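So, does this match?
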Amino acid sequence: EKWMVTEIPRLTKAKMEIATKEEHNPIAQDVKDGKLRDYHGPIYWNYGCFPQTWEDPSVEHPELGVLGDNDPLDVVEIGRITHQPGDIRRVKVLG
């Protein structure tokens, strides 16, 4: 049994994320080069993370050769229900 925190509800465009460097870690829209970030169109899944996890930026993935992004582990939830930002939902890991 795993639990996710929803950052981006399905069928939305705003690139939201847990602001790990801000006090109380609010969910906020990501900013790049001073501009709010959006996806090109709505995403068709709920996107979030597993709380209290972390991808270490100094560790290289043994098969992909990429480094961690210094954020919690990402989750894509493919159910039919649209979550709200901040929802905590039980999920089943596939694969």
About this structure: DSSP finds no helices and eight strands in the chain. The longest strand covers residues 2-8. The chain has a mean pLDDT of 95.
